[in-house]
Structure formats: structure tokens, C-alpha cells
Amino acid sequence: MSLCIGVLKETPDGERRVSLVPGDLKAIKALGAEVMIETGAGTASAYPDSAYEAAGAKVAKSRDELLASSQIVL
Question: What average pLDDT does this structure show over 40-48?
């Protein structure tokens, strides 16, 4: 089993930041880690789920799935 890094969606009102952008996924994947994002994690920062998927991330079906699958959470 490889290391899974989970990326949560920020929940405070007006928060637009995301802890990982799709462009940084290549470096993480090159180290052998997997990345799972919460649905909509990058939307407020203009990164749709499809951009993360195209970069190699898996989109979690729920926050609970992400938390249960990830060894590191951003």
C-alpha cells in the first residue's frame, strides 16, 4: 500500500485557498505517493476536480472516505 495524501476542502466562509494545486501533483506522484481530494477542494481557487483527476489524483466520494484512506491530510 502506498502513502495517500488527502486534500480537504476548506470550509470557512469566504475561504478560497486550497492546500495543493494540480500542478504540484507530478512531484508527489513521482515520489510514489497517491493523492485523494475532497470533491470541490480547489473550486474556489479555480481548480476544478477534473484538473486534479487529469493530474493523477482520485476524487473522494466523501470526506469520510478521504479521512479513512489518507495517512497525511492537508
Answer: 96
Model's pTM, two decimal places?
Answer: 0.91
DSSP state of 9: P
Sheet strand arrangement including 72-73: 58-60, 34-38, 4-7, 72-73
How many whole angstroms separate alpha carbon 51 and alpha carbon 65?
20
Residues 45 and 54 sit within 8 Å (Cβ to Cβ) = no
Please compute, for residue 29, the number of CA atoms within 13 A of its CA located in the half-sphere on the CB side: 15
With beta carbons less than 8 A apart as the criterion, state whether 59 and 52 touch.
yes
